[in-house]
Amino acid sequence: MNASDYIISKQILWALNNNIKLIGSKGARGRLAYTQKLRDNLFEPMLPDIKNSFKEGDGGELKGSPSKMQAVHSSSALGVNIFQYWQKINQIPKIAAACGFCNKTNRRSHNIKFETKYQINEKFPFSPNIDVTIENLPKSRFKVFAIECKFSEAYSSRRHSGIDTKYLDLKNIWKGLPILHRLSKKISPEDNRFKYLHVAQLVKHILGLNKKYGKNKFRLLYLWYDCLGDVGSKHREEIEEFTKKAKADNIYFHALSYQELIIKLSKEYRDTHGDYIKYISNRYL
Question: Fewest CB within 10 angstroms: 35, 44, 48, 163, which?
C-alpha cells in the first residue's frame, strides 16, 4: 500500500470507528471517503469568517456535493481542525508557539485566516492562496506567520507543476532572492527534481509574502504529514534541501510534521484542552 492510500484508509477507519457514514466522491459513486455532512469531518462547525474565507478562495473547497472538504483526507479540513479551535477560544499565541514561530511569551498573534492571497505581480490574474496565516499586531517584528499545509497530496501519483517561465522573466520579483531564483530556473517549466515537495508552490508563496511585507517581516512554515518508510524519508530530504536554499536567501522558513505538532500540543495541553487534544490525536496520530 502506498503512502497516499495508507493515509486515506486510516481516515476511513477513523470515520467507521466513530459511526460516521461515508459516501463516494460523486455521492453514490466513487470511493467511500467523504462524509455525508461537512460537520461530520470537523472537530467543531466552521466559524462564519472562516467559512467565508474558503468561499472566497480559489480552491473551491466548499463547492459541490460532496465538497472537497468533506473528504476524510482533506488537507483543508485538517487545517481547520488544528487551527480554528485556537481562534475560537482567543488563544492564538499558543498555537503560534507550538508551530515554532515564537516563544511561549508571545502575545502579539491575534488573528487566524485561511486561504489568504498575496499578489506576486499585477500581470498575473491569480494570486496563490496560503492555507493558514496567523496575523500579528502592527508593531510586531514579523507581520504574519504563514503556513502551507499538506496531508496525503504530497504522496499522490499526480506530478506537481514547476515554475512557469513567465515568473522567471520578471526580475523585480526576485530581488534579494538569488538562490531561489536559480533553483526556480532548474524546475522550470517542469519540476523533475522534487517528487514529494511542491517547491514551485512554496516559492510562489515566498514571492507573494516578500512583495507584501519584505523578507524580514514574515515567517513561513511547511506543515506536512509524515509517513514511515522510504517515501517519508525522501520527502524529509527534499524539505531539508529546500530549507537550506530558502535560508541562504535569508528567508525565515522551517518545516514541522503534523505528528510532531500534535504530540507537542498533547504534552502541553492535554489537561486544559482535553476534548480538542483527544480528537486530533485519535484522528491524526
Answer: 48
Residue 107's φ and ψ, nearest 5 degrees, are -130, 15
Q: What is the pTM of this model?
A: 0.96
Q: What is the mean pLDDT of the chain?
A: 95
Listed residue (61, 63, 72) closest to 30, CA to CA: 72
pLDDT of residue 128: 87
Q: What is the mean pLDDT of residues 157-184?
A: 93
How long, in residues, is the chain? 285
Q: Report the 3 state secondary structure along the chain.
A: CCHHHHHHHHHHHHHHHCCCCEEECCECCCCCCEECCHHHHCCCCCCHHHHHHHHHCCCCCCCCCCCHHHECCCHHHHHHHHHHHHHHCCCHHHHHHHCCCCCCCCCCEEEEEEEEECCCCCCCCCCCEEEEEEEECCCCCCCEEEEEEECCHHHCCCCCCCCCHHHHCCHHHHCCCHHHHHHHHHCCCCCCCCCCCCHHHHHHHHHHHHHHHCCCCEEEEEEECCCCCHHHHHHHHHHHHHHHHHHHCCCCEEEEEHHHHHHHHHHHHCCCCHHHHHHHHHHHC
Q: Which residues contact 136 (CB under 8 A, 6 or more apart)?
A: 108, 109, 110, 142, 143, 144, 145
Q: Look at residue 1 and tell me whether its pLDDT is greater than 80.
A: no
Sequence-ordered list of residues with C-beta below 8 angstroms from that of 181, at least 6 positions apart, any chain: 168, 174
Measured at the CA of 51, the angle between CA 50 and CA 52, to 5 degrees, comes to: 90
Express as a percent the part of the chain with pLDDT over 90.
89
Report pLDDT digits (tens) over 158-171: 888 999 999 998 99
